[in-house]
Amino acid sequence: MKKQIMTLAASAAIAMFTLSSCVTVNSGAALAEKAPVGPKVGEAKSSIILGFWSSKGEQNNIKEAAANGGITKVSQVEYVDKSILLGLFIQHTTRVYGE
Q1: Is the dihedral of CA 9, 12, 17, 22 positive or negative?
Q2: Is this structure's pTM higher than 0.85?
Q3: 47 Cβ partners below 8 Å, 6+ apart?
């Protein structure tokens, strides 16, 4: 009986620490040049599921986003991170603006 109570207490503690993570939506922007935001927009995304990278890997870099939008001259870069279900699913997005 005592062993079952200890096992239950340990399981509850592990569940509490696992499910009590911070949930955030972060975004940030950086200017590459002193120019107005360009008319074109390109995005690149990657996801983390249960702490593992998805099959896309880290394809959310500036070069990939610019290529997806047909951008050759970057004027602004924006990063957005979405955390869903207490961090069990995280989506990273890189958004590039330019010409």
Answers
A1: negative
A2: no
A3: 53, 54, 56, 89, 90, 91, 92
Tokens of 65: 């986003």
Token pair, residue 61, equals 């870099």
* Nearest in space to 74 (alpha carbons), one of 26, 45, 46, 36: 36
For the stretch 33-50, pLDDT in tens is 566 778 899 998 888 877
Buried b (16+ CB within 10 A) or exposed e, 23-52: eeeeeeeeeeeeeeebebbbebbbbbeeee
Q: What angle do CA 89, 83, 19 make, to 5 degrees?
A: 70
Q: Is the distance from CB of 56 to CB of 86 less than 8 angstroms?
A: no
Interval 51-90: pLDDT, tens: 766 656 666 788 889 999 999 988 888 888 887 776 678 8
